[in-house]
Amino acid sequence: MKKYNVGILGASGAVGREMIKVLEERNFPIETLKLFASERSVGKKVEFCGKELTIELADYGAWAGLDFVLGAASNAVAKQFADDIVKSGAVFIDNSSAFRMDPDIPLVVPEINAEDARNNKKGIIANPNCSTIITLVAVNAINKLSKIKGIVASTYQATSGAGAAGPVELDEQMRAIINGADITPSVFQYQIAENLIPQIGSFLDNGYTTEEMKMQNEGRKILHNPDLKVTCTCVRVPVVRSHSISATVVTERKLTVDEVKAAIAACEGCKLYDDVENKIYPMPLVTSDQDLVFVGRIREDIVHDNAITLWCCGDQVRKGAATNAIQIAEALIEK
Amino acid sequence: MKKYNVGILGASGAVGREMIKVLEERNFPIETLKLFASERSVGKKVEFCGKELTIELADYGAWAGLDFVLGAASNAVAKQFADDIVKSGAVFIDNSSAFRMDPDIPLVVPEINAEDARNNKKGIIANPNCSTIITLVAVNAINKLSKIKGIVASTYQATSGAGAAGPVELDEQMRAIINGADITPSVFQYQIAENLIPQIGSFLDNGYTTEEMKMQNEGRKILHNPDLKVTCTCVRVPVVRSHSISATVVTERKLTVDEVKAAIAACEGCKLYDDVENKIYPMPLVTSDQDLVFVGRIREDIVHDNAITLWCCGDQVRKGAATNAIQIAEALIEK
Prior knowledge:
Two copies of one chain form a homodimer. By secondary structure, chain A is of the alpha/beta class. In chain A, α3 packs across α9 and α4 packs across α7. The first copy, chain A, is globular. Chains A and B meet through β9, α5, β10, β11 and β13 of A and β9, α5, β10, β11 and β13 of B.
């Protein structure tokens, strides 16, 4: 089997570190793994497959000889190095939102549109937003039964969605509450422990946040459905890891709960987790640190004639980011 | 001003204790306050308006001379004593769900249908479910602008909705997480600290929980709208107090965001709390321990032609239970 030279840009962040772990777990055929980050992290040691790797400076020319660069950095850093990465001959699979809506750059959830990844004329493939990936993997089976016209989604997003500093802030605030100490938020807009913050991203003129509009905008591109309508409300919750989404999915045809359950059970990337009599439904604690999107609470919607309401959870650092990027690379390699 | 003799049935629970506090805060015209609970709490002392009251046994005949009995006990206890309370001449304002759907017993949110409270032929008035009260107060102004046809709601319900033991369990579990100790849930089905539980109440044949169906069933009765359709997903979140609801409200006529905001700002029981540029939106920490329902994130829905999407928070121990019951009593007294 051919082996590949892989680089990770932003290797010291939450997603970058998870990429290292997932590459090892999935036995990605690696010849060499190179880790890149900003000055601050250069020289740090990271273990990969029993070997110690050293983080190098992310800089022009650093990508020579690589087949893939997995991007786990900011939009600015992704934009800064994208051309240089592509010119060096590597395919850049980027987790930032910098290139997601570029019509010439595929936006890919491999279970849904892996074929788009193979049509990357610019050498760049974008990894979608975390809540978008989790929701779309959950509803992909429904979309195959009957085209989805609209989704009304409310998210319950974990602190790790804000990077490694998110769960640290939650932990610190929990300690402060227990010790009666003062709380000064820094990662989140307000205290997140024992609270909810209905703002992720910045506000647009239509009253939605940038994060909220991603599910519609990215969903249209991934599902090849330019008419898809999504109303999304994104809320940060005091959870460490795994995003949850309450979704009402409006379809063209009326579906039965049984056919939806059967389709989800058979769908790649999903786990039907729906046995309410035995209190089996997705929860963040159950779905963290693994790659499947758990789907449960599947029932006929009451407001709409043709809609299914469900609840899904998935680990947004893994399937919502690191794993999805590596699955894109897997879709491109010789098997 | 006439003064009234008031009893609280279930005075030692979370809602009962809050009723004592709210009666004092609102200067309810009280001649005598009597507190009743089960054997376990008899003899306990509680302060009210600078005086020490002693909890008495809830028993047949205990209500003699009372004008109002506020019920803050279980369905079973409410059913056990309702007839006896009414026969003694008191009006029974009950927070349990025992009588809510009885067609001869009014179900009242005073800002919406106070007139129903005055038509209590059986001497019993029911206090609605907490999430239902908060959501309906938030959307009441919208319903006056254009009849509501449907609501798609996802709740984020605080631990205090499970009674006084709920926040205690959250606190204990937060300590256990920080100390690396084991967690054994007892109040909730699963660990609630750093987790979400998409089950409140028990499951019905249609896949919804008893709690989820309350918003439609009780909403129809309160709004005098038998055709109202509500899809609700109820989720327990690791918050101490204040329930939050993400709601898409489908109306007969298309409403503008500006007219909705103006109507909510002018609506009794609501506080328009919607200035996203300045990060002003309802949050549990901001809305706890007060009586208004805060409404924000008001925007045009994307999926439906005629719908408004919003986010609201309210203290479910107060407006969702204790305060609403006392407001019902206020609607019945001579002023």
